[in-house]
Amino acid sequence: MDPLNPARTRTAAFTLTFDGREIRASPGQSVAAALWSSGVTAWRTTRGEGRARGVFCGIGVCFDCLVTVDGRPNQRACLVPAVRGADVRTQRGTGHDD
């Protein structure tokens, strides 16, 4: 991918699923970037009050962007690379059937 000119990227876009919905992603994007570019801004709820969360820091320092990816909870969406066919799910609470 050419970061200065994404239009010159030779690798084709692909899809992953988010809560059963197909989301388009580009090579080099994180899961958070793919969700954001598809208009999804929240993909986790807090443990206590169930408040919606999405990206806060965007660099892996906080834990606001946690998602479940391919059955593995507590994945930071801002750090996990988007890959073809990934099954991304909203994480509720701790991500373990509380």
Concise description?
The chain has one helix at 31-37, and strands at 14-18, 21-25, 44-45, 52-53, 66-69, 72-76, 87-92. With 98 residues, the protein is mainly beta.
What key phrases describe this protein's structure?
1 helix; mainly beta; 30% strand; seven-stranded mixed β-sheet; 7% helix; 98 residues
Percent of residues in beta strands: 25-35%
Give the biggest beta sheet.
7 strands, mixed
Morphology call? globular
Radius of gyration using CA atoms only: 14 Å
Mean residue pLDDT: 89
Unreliable spans are none
Number of strands: 7
Share of helical residues: under 10%
Number of helices: 1
Oligomer: single chain
Broad structural category: mainly beta
Q: How far is the first residue's CA from the last residue's CA? A: 41 Å
- Secondary-structure element series: EEHEEEEE
Structural commentary:
This protein is mainly β and 98 residues long. The protein has one helix spanning 31-37; strands at residues 14-18, 21-25, 44-45, 52-53, 66-69, 72-76, 87-92. The protein is globular, with a radius of gyration of 14 Å. The chain starts with 13 loop residues before the first strand and ends in a 6-residue tail after the last strand. The mean pLDDT is 89.
